[in-house]
Write a structure and sequence with these properties.
32% of the residues lie in helices and 28% in strands. The protein is of the alpha+beta class. Helix 2 (69-86) packs across helix 3.
Length: 191
């Protein structure tokens, strides 16, 4: 029965999935030195011709719009990470919820400054609630902290020296160029 449900949800989503093309990344690790975050984005692709962060969710039933807010916060974090790492500007955030009871729920919103502000609040709350002392030597593995309810990872100042990015390989581009930081802040603050 479980396999049947998965296939039913997938088949019900095919029409929506056909709106995705020109995939840039799928299940890609991203990070931000500015935000001190890392995470794994589901998909970065064009959705109906617009460059999008696409996040896939599952649910027994349709979600109320207010319950999707934190997904947008998570997705805007990925948008900021993508901008910082690759200088790619996201046009929209797409949340696709495969629902057991029928057709998928698709919500499309622009990246907004309010999501970035809420993300920064989450980071500050988590830093106060769960402080980690900076050791004099690097522990193995380097400490990380998940923001509850998301797939975002808070990084300590020494996290970039760890090898958590891809099973033993060093973190790519550990320090953003100085010129990328003003561009990142200027773009994200315009949302």
């Amino acid at each position: 029965k479980e396999d049947t449900l998965v296939w039913d949800m997938f088949n019900a989503s095919l029409e929506v999935l056909n709106n995705i093309n020109n995939v840039y990344f799928q299940e890609a690790a991203l990070y931000s030195d500015v935000l001190g975050l890392a995470g794994r984005v589901d998909c970065i692709a064009e959705y109906n011709g617009k460059l999008s962060i696409i996040d896939f969710k599952t649910s027994k039933k349709y979600k109320k719009k207010e319950y999707l807010y934190d997904y947008y916060v998570q997705e805007v974090a990925y948008a900021c990470m993508l901008l910082e790492q690759y200088n790619l500007k996201i046009e929209q955030l797409v949340t696709i919820v495969a629902v057991e009871s029928g057709m998928p729920q698709v919500e499309i919103v622009p990246p907004k400054k309010e999501y970035l502000i809420r993300l920064e609040e989450y980071i500050k709350e988590w830093d106060v609630a769960k402080p980690i002392p900076i050791p004099t030597t690097l522990p193995e593995p380097s400490p990380t902290r998940w923001i509850p309810g998301s797939r975002l990872l808070l990084r300590t100042p020494y996290f970039r020296k760890s090898s958590l990015w891809s099973r033993g390989s060093p973190c790519p581009n550990p320090t953003p160029s100085v010129s990328s930081l003003p561009r990142w802040k200027a773009t994200c603050s315009n949302w």
